[in-house]
Structures are given as C-alpha cells and as structure tokens.
UniProtKB/TrEMBL annotation:
This is Ion-translocating oxidoreductase complex subunit G. PANTHER family: ION-TRANSLOCATING OXIDOREDUCTASE COMPLEX SUBUNIT G. Keywords: Cell membrane, Electron transport, Flavoprotein, FMN, Membrane, Phosphoprotein, Signal, Translocase, Transmembrane, Transmembrane helix, Transport. Residues 1-18 form the signal peptide. Pfam families: FMN_bind. Part of a membrane-bound complex that couples electron transfer with translocation of ions across the membrane. It comes from Bullifex porci. GO terms for cellular component: plasma membrane. It is found in: Cell membrane. It comes from the Bacteria. Belongs to the RnfG family. One of its GO terms (biological process) is electron transport chain. It is a single-pass membrane protein. One of its GO terms (molecular function) is electron transfer activity.
Amino acid sequence: MKQYLKIALILFAICAVAAALLAVVNAVTAPQIAANALKETSAALMDISGGYDLGEKREGDGNVNYVITLVENKEIKGYVLELTSNGYGGPITLVASYKTDGELIGAKMMANSETPGLGKKSEESWYMAQFVGFGATAPIPTSKNDLADPSLVSGATVTFTGVSGALKNGSEYVKSLGGK
C-alpha cells in the first residue's frame, strides 16, 4: 500500500510541475499570440476594404459578430462584417466587405477546421473572388451550378455551402442597414 501511495505522490508531483511549466509558457506566449491575431485581422480588413477607410466598429447580431463602416469623405460607402457559419470541419469565421446595396467587395477566411486540400481552398484569394460583385442585383451564388467553374469547389460542398450562406446572409444584413 505504501508503494502505491509513493507512486501516486510522484505522479502528482510530475503533473504539478508540468502544469506549472505550461502556465509559465502560456503567460509568456499569450501576449504575442494576441498581437499576431490583431495584426492578422488588421491586414485582412485592409485587404478587403476596397480602398475605403475603416470607420466605426459596433456589435452585430446573429451570425454577424461585428460591423465596421467603410467611409470615404465622411460618407458611409459600405460595411465590413465578421461572419460565422458552419463548414465540414466545424465553425468557420470570415470577414467580408459590402457596398451599401449589398454588393460584395471582398472576403477573407479567418478561421476554419476544414479538410486540407478540399475545404482549405476557401482560404485562397481566388476562392472568395468567385463571389465578388454579387449580392446587389445578382444574388450571391449559393449553388455550385451558379458559379462560372463549379469544378473549383468540387469535393467541398459543405464548405462551399457554409461560405456562400454566410456571404449571402451578410449581403442581406447590409441591405437592411443601407447607409445607416
């Protein structure tokens, strides 16, 4: 019995040391990770802003996490939205910019757990470019058959549905805002 107690205490000590080391590593790396995430988000927002200045940020609702106005000469020209949806691998987060009439200016995938080689294609700029210009007079493509080349998203139907659904919902959300 004493031998089991001795082994249990040794294992407890090992676990306590490991937990303490992990806490120290986390305390040292957490600020840098947060700074990198902020830098990545800022770069993505500038990439999709369409040349407009970023204005006021406010909370969204539903699958819209936040809204940032796109401004030119103190006039609202559009909005940037952070959108969430579901893909094959779980939740996906993307940022998308729209003109006030709901036309998509640009979009970028921010976080996902999609399948490498299939759903991960959504991280590439050409993938999101398929949706640019849609949303105002022409609806956002929500079916592969609505695309110029459906084979580009072949094998990743759930990812496509998640991305296109989020972009469509974002367009409708922006239309409801108008120039407000």
